[in-house]
Structures are given as structure tokens and as C-alpha cells.
Design brief:
By secondary structure, the chain is an alpha+beta fold. The protein is about 50% helix and about 15% strand. Strand 4 and strand 5 form a beta hairpin. The two termini are about 20 Å apart.
Length: about 375
């Protein structure tokens, strides 16, 4: 399970007591969850008005940053197309896996100084993650263009003889070149018609050079034949070939153009390799930054919501629960029993929701204790 419940409850006589009670309720008799204390430093409280406004702003910022974290991780998966198993080992926060980072969370005092107001800290985080989002768009766009152009060229060099590029198949000696009267044409003939082709190609139109056909290349279904004829017979030959279910390819041997295509493919391939390493490093670093920022926003939300709900002086215990998947419903019930005295209206909402199946209350995520979900399952592998 990579889902965590970040909750808080007011300190009893001490915060340790609150922690002990929750531990007894969730682990002593019934292994409902794995729990860790979640350390939030002494942040500046500010005024009630500011806290109320901040509560809404932080909710929006939370979902924005979660979106950026998911975008960076998903793009990492797209870029590491051949090694999806490597994706997980690149998605780290501060050099450790995400579960370790969350369960041992320590506030980063250097990045987010706690002497600043809550609003300032949230602005610092917002600016930082917006910058990552903008940089990601620019980098992804450049890399995707490169990748797309390369794929288009690769597609040209693969597929059926009817559509694929012929540059890497034919050679100069296959053609009559620089003749005023003669031209070599390339014809795609189904394999089942090879015998008919050999019998009939000389008589498809006038002015076909006898014994001038050669098989240059084959794929699963057809072969590419060359045939030489007089230029003035081109249209008639094309027409007759089509009637006999042969396809004349539009192709003129041009060494410069063919070399330009090959050089472009080499250039794009080299560019892609050059960009790949720095891009993966950038994604790794900025995934870590965005994820760390996201967990700090969760910490801010717990702090603000706990002060708004439980009042001053600041006295609450933040706790991180990793639910046991089979017992999630039971864990929710145990927590509601433990904390229903904190908010009777929340308890009423929970009771109603439990009594009326299918009732989708907007306050469904509202509980008598402060609660935020953290889902570390960020990848949506196709």
C-alpha cells in the first residue's frame, strides 16, 4: 500500500498521550496500520483571517503540486520508454524512496525558513513548483518534437514497399542515369504475380527495353522490380501496369536527396541521445523537488487546519498512518470512535453516510479529526 493518511488530533495532557492512544487503538489488538509521528516545526500562526484564507489557497496549491508531481513522474516513464522498471528507482525524494521520505519527514529549514509567515512559505513553494511546471512544458515540447521527427523518418524507412522510402534499398547501378531517351522505373509486384510479370512486362506498353527487369528487394508480400523504357512511354506504361495490379512507384534516383535524408536521420538520432541523459537528470532532480514541496504543503495544511479546529495555543499531534489494505474500513471506524468527541457534526455526517448507501456527500472526506490523504502511487503505466 502506498497510500498514507496524514491526520492530527489535539494534545491531551501531552501530545505523547495523544500518540499513545492512537497507537493502542490501531495496533495493539488489530494490525490496522503502520504509524509514524509526523514532525511539524513551530510555525508562525498569524491572524485567524489569514489562516482561513490560507486554508483555501493551500487546498488549491496541494492539488496543483500533486498534478505537477504526477506529470513529472509520468513524463519520466515516457522518456525511459525501454526501461520502465528503472522509472521507480529514479523517482526519489532527497535521495531516498518516497515511503522512507514521508515516514521520516523532516521540515527543510533552509528551503522554507520557519521564521517566515505561513503565507510567505506557501508563496515560495508555489513559485518553485510553477517554475518546474513551466520548465517541464518547454523541455517536453523540445524532446517530443525531436522524437516525433525521428519516428516519422523511421516510419518512412519501414512498412510496405508501396509506401516506404526506397533510398536504402536501391543502388546507383540499378538505374539508367542521365539518358535523354531512357528511364528506369520501379514497380511493386505482388509475390503471387512474379511469373505473370516476367511474361508480360515487355509488352505492357511499347518501347519497353527487353530483358531489363531485375528484382531489387522483397518484403513479406511483394517484390520491387526495376524496368527500363523510353521516356515517351511512361504514361502508357503506368496506366497498363495499374490495370494489371502492379504499382509504379514515383521515384527518381537523386544521390543528394538520399544522402540528405540519411544525414538528417543520423543528426536526429544523435541529438536525441545527447538530450536523453540531461533530460533524465533534470526530471530526477525536479521530481524530488516537487515531491518534497508537495509533502511540505501537506504539513502546512495539517498545521493550519489543526489551529483552526483545535484553537490556540498550538497543541496537536500530527500522525502518519499507512493503512493495511484489508482493514481500511475498520481503521476508519476505529479513528471515528476515538475522535468523535472532537466534532459531533462530523460524526453525524459519517453516520448518515454509513446509513444511506450510495449517498455521495460533498463532506465525505470530512472527519472529526484533521485528515489528508497522500497517495504515492503516481504512475499510470499503460
Amino acid at each position: 500500500m502506498t497510500e498514507f493518511w496524514l491526520i492530527s488530533a489535539p494534545g491531551e495532557k501531552t501530545c505523547q498521550q495523544t500518540w499513545d492512544q492512537m497507537m493502542v487503538a490501531t495496533t495493539r489488538n488489530n494490525n490496522l496500520s503502520t504509524n509514524n509521528k509526523f514532525n511539524i516545526p513551530d510555525l508562525k500562526v498569524g491572524t485567524l483571517d489569514v489562516l482561513v484564507g490560507l486554508s483555501d489557497d493551500l487546498a488549491k496549491l496541494d492539488s496543483f503540486i500533486e498534478g505537477v508531481v504526477k506529470k513529472v513522474s509520468q513524463y519520466m516513464a515516457d522518456v525511459l520508454e525501454d526501461s520502465r522498471d528503472k522509472v521507480q528507482e529514479n523517482l526519489l525524494a532527497n535521495g531516498v524512496d518516497l515511503v522512507t521520505y514521508i515516514t521520516r519527514f523532516q521540515w527543510d529549514m533552509a528551503k522554507y525558513p520557519i521564521k517566515q509567515s505561513l503565507k510567505n512559505i506557501s508563496d515560495i513553494i508555489s513559485k518553485q513548483v510553477s517554475q518546474i511546471d513551466n520548465d517541464l512544458k518547454a523541455r517536453a515540447s523540445a524532446y517530443n518534437n525531436l522524437k516525433g521527427n525521428l519516428q516519422n523518418l523511421e516510419r518512412k524507412n519501414a512498412g510496405s514497399l508501396l509506401t516506404r522510402s526506397l533510398a536504402d534499398i536501391v543502388k546507383k547501378e540499378d538505374f539508367v542515369i542521365d539518358s535523354e531517351y531512357l528511364i528506369t522505373m520501379l514497380v511493386v509486384v505482388p509475390k503471387t504475380s512474379y511469373v505473370d510479370w516476367q511474361k508480360t512486362y515487355e509488352t505492357l506498353s511499347e518501347m519497353v527495353v527487353p530483358r531489363s527487369t531485375n528484382l531489387l528487394f522483397e518484403d513479406h508480400d511483394s517484390g520491387l522490380f526495376s524496368v527500363t523504357l523510353f521516356r515517351k512511354a511512361i504514361d502508357d506504361f503506368r496506366h497498363k501496369a495499374r490495370e494489371n495490379k502492379y504499382t509504379v512507384r514515383d521515384f527518381q534516383y537523386n544521390e543528394q536527396e538520399m544522402n540528405a535524408d540519411k544525414e538528417e536521420m543520423t543528426r536526429l538520432s544523435t541529438d536525441k541521445k545527447k538530450q536523453f541523459g540531461p533530460l533524465v537528470r533534470w526530471l530526477k532532480v525536479n521530481f524530488s523537488e516537487a515531491f518534497i514541496a508537495w509533502i511540505h504543503i501537506k504539513a502546512l495544511r495539517v498545521f493550519v487546519e489543526s489551529v483552526l479546529r483545535y484553537g490556540l495555543p498550538v497543541n496537536f499531534q500530527a500522525m502518519l498512518l499507512q493503512p493495511n489494505k484489508k482493514n481500511m474500513k475498520k481503521l476508519r471506524e476505529v479513528l471515528n470512535d476515538l475522535y468523535k468527541h472532537l466534532d459531533s457534526s462530523a460524526a453525524a455526517v459519517i453516520d448518515t453516510a454509513m446509513d444511506i448507501p450510495g449517498l455521495n456527500l460533498s463532506q465525505q472526506e470530512y472527519y472529526p479529526y484533521v485528515y489528508y490523504k497522500i497517495d504515492c502511487n503516481l504512475l499510470d503505466f499503460k
